[in-house]
Predict the structure.
Amino acid sequence: MFKRKFLYDFGVSQDDPQSEIRALKPVPGDRILCIASAGEVPLELLVNTHESIKIDAVDIAESQLFLSNLKLKAAAILKTEEAARFLGYLPSDTANRTELFNLIKPELPASEVKYWRNQKRIFEQGPIHLGRYETYIARFAPLGRWLLGGYHKMLGLFETRSIEEQKAYFDQKLRTGLLKNLFKLMFHRRLYRKGGIAEQGLIHMGDQNIGLRFYAKFRGFCTNTPVRQNWMLQLVLFNRVLFEEALPSYLTPEGRERLQNERDRLQFIKISYTDILDTADRGRYNKFALSNVSDWLTEEDFMTLMEVISQKAGEDARGLIRYIHSSGIVPAQLPGNIQLNYASGERLLEQDRFPFYNLVPFTITGDEN
């Protein structure tokens, strides 16, 4: 049923970078270590932090690094709308994307040019639509819209002008009850692991019914924050961003200018999070965006990572853990200098535009005892 049509696991990052910024509280001179994934988090950190802050974005998947770098180069070289159309946030066609790629190509390493030239589908659909997760969700999106009441009924949500209006519209106009069975089907382990996510990402799933969990959080996705500013919600529901003002800030004119002037302070590195810290000097990093790596690692491996972070962190150290299935934390084994703040995570989640993860901020003191 799900013949492989994806190029990487994620075409867009499912982390809301605004939560990372609120949790990490970046200040001049910081050095941030984050996951590259599909690129939005490191790019948003770049254009929304002080020019003195260095950012290293790591990933063990070369294709994710290629995608992240393609987004950086597209945003820095092309005009705002052109970059959004090339990448797939906004509609375009094969001829236009091919023409725009030719403008980006001189700025890419030869290995990446060759990779993208062999992936003709990026010119047809836009690279953000060719992740495993996006390809999977796109199969169900038309049915989801129909169950909710149809395209125009969904569009009405974006005509509201306040959070209160959004909540009222969602509760009174949309047929959300019919969506529950679709969520249960989409995220049934047997089906989801075949098409939606790599098996490694489900090692902590157990008997959890994440379809019901995601269904329960769907209302927050549609009502917690202004929908006209939520590019991810628009992309999930309509396969495109509806309003240009909702585009990620790295694609705004201001973001483009900062990328052009400051992109050297962001590095994409093929290495695991643990391995880069193992080889780093103590104090090199003091801010840690972990995404949901705990969902992909065994508890033992994740606790090893937390131990390394506790030993290597610099001053004013902070981090953010995301997770769906497991935090990966064994409280009795947690280094003494790491303090978790679950209450702060709950407050962050209320403002998160993509609220499907649990959030656990942490701080690190200088003393492990």
